[in-house]
Model the fold of this input.
Amino acid sequence: GVLRDLKRCSQALQCYDRAIRLRPGLAEAYSNRGGVLQDLGRREEALASCDRAICLNPGLTAAHSNRGSTLRELRRYEEALLSCERAILLSRDFAEAHSNRGCVLQALNRPEEALASFDKAIALHSGYAEAHANRGWVLRTLGRGEEALTSCERAISLRPDLAEAHSHRGCLYQ
Done:
């Protein structure tokens, strides 16, 4: 949401908590709440919120994708991969799920598969800066420096404030 994008996570969390109090069965609020809690570093709570969203609506793609991202941050990679793949099965055109899957595959040291996931995310949403930055990092891992640099520069052109893209680009210059 806009508040989350503006890094006003505590306000976004208050909004989702109020939505849940008003309508306890609103799966989307639990899913979004999970994403905000993850941003705040409250990963176990984020996972519980995503799980609640999935319990309320097993077909909610974003909840599975958020769950996968949270599990990756908890270093529970195999479970994370299953959640990302479930999200993709539910909605093949959900770029975030492909990007999250790429991050998990990268953590599992499966760079070729990670690259394919980032490529798919970018094919679905060409302006997805994080996917371009992560693509750059995995290309670096594969020894494809020029392509990596191009991906990082694309990420920066899309989101000049994306620290990871600048960091990845810096590593390429070393």
